[in-house]
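ok so I'm stuck.
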Amino acid sequence: MTAFYSKVEIFLKNRGEMGKRKGEKWMIKRERKVTRGILTAVFLGAAMLFVSCGSEKKAATMRLVQTAGTVGVQDENEKEVSLADNLGLYSGYQVGTKEESYAWIDLDQVKLAKMDQSSEIEIRKSENEKELSIDVRSGSMFFNVKEPLAEDESMEIQTSTMIAGIRGTCGYLERGAGYSGLGLLEGTVECRAAGGDSVLLEAGQMALLSDGDTEISVFPLRAEEVPDFVRAEVPELIDRLAAMQQEHIDETEPEEEETDELLYDPQAGLELPEVPQDGIERRVLEAADGEALAELSRNGEDLSNTEIRLGDGTYELNYFNLYGFENLSIIGTGKTRLVVNNGYEQILEAINCKNLLLYGLVMGHELRPEESGCTAGVLYLSNSKDVKLVGCDIYGCGLVGISGWDSALTAQNTIVRDCSRCAVSWMGGGGELNFEHCVFSGNGTDGGYGSEPLFGGSGDGLSLTLRDCVMQNNINSEKYQFYMGETTVWNETDTREAGNAWQ
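replied:
not stuck anymore, here's the structure
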């Protein structure tokens, strides 16, 4: 499948219409019969290449009935032929169009073809004029054979690499740099490579053959990919193609249940899990308010092997820094709020800590009316190992929910929401980040930092894992963007997404 799509992308790129074909939901099988016809378009150009389409008998009179812009005709001896009304085109005649120029050709008074700008073709007829072929040397050509050819007549349209037999069909043929392409709007056509590969092309399909290949690739033809010079001739067929495309999508895509409910409701919160146990004995301290909590980290006391228990309510902090502690747990109730009332300080910093547990804490900024916004994040980790964030709610207006350097963090049943820049920013130094059953909601802004990713930073040596997480209504332009190193690892499973800017 990878090789198939690479061909499609090369083809579209050469046309100047690179599109996203991965994840196409309505692939149509090759070698399948259909009821909508084809014809193809002849190309322009500088490269004298030929494509042919097979059958064996042709109709008689071909005439140049209309031109726009600069159109030239040469006879079989390459002598210039003066343009005239209903100019007859005979075997060996060549027709070319310049930029912003077009030519219309009829076959036995049935409208047959329209040449795109900057295109070149050559007419070939058998001696009995029953067998006709049109060589598309460069550019594009639209075909619309409204009436089937007689049983003893045949018409082929060809490039140097592709051949198609035309009989009561409508479509267009392209000869570009390094490829030949046939788009079918109505009918059914057998298309073959000069080397022998053959496919049955149906309405709503395009055949692609790269130079040097012998295998034709077939993929869905999107209405928006049909060239404008074709669209102008048969707008009703383009509308039909768009409807057929939507029909295939509707048939193959599973219907999603319509619901007004979010994947996660920030007002409801997440279910608080049990406090993790590691078997280490700790002394127990309590802090009645924010000042008492902050004082514990400022008085020089070693908080290693300590459990700090907090109650419901708001703990206002000015600066809360944990440095060099091991086996420290800060246990909230799920309704314990750690807040800073200015926008220039982190809520909590942990530096050189080991085996740190933050449980049941709601952490964010509660700005005074005179404060205009945040210039600091919420949680910052540096050189800290085995940090656990369980049942916590990290919210804006913090610039970044979680940031750090060379640390190992596991977050479980935790929310990161409404941060004005991004959810996670890692400055480097390696580390390990694991998010399990977490929610990332409403992060980013329409302006300022809104173009940054939800997860970002330097990923050299970083291992990042997301497992069973929800991402919804984030304004960030991308899900993640790390400057990856050779040792960077990204694992993501069972992510659910809704309403994000990158979708």
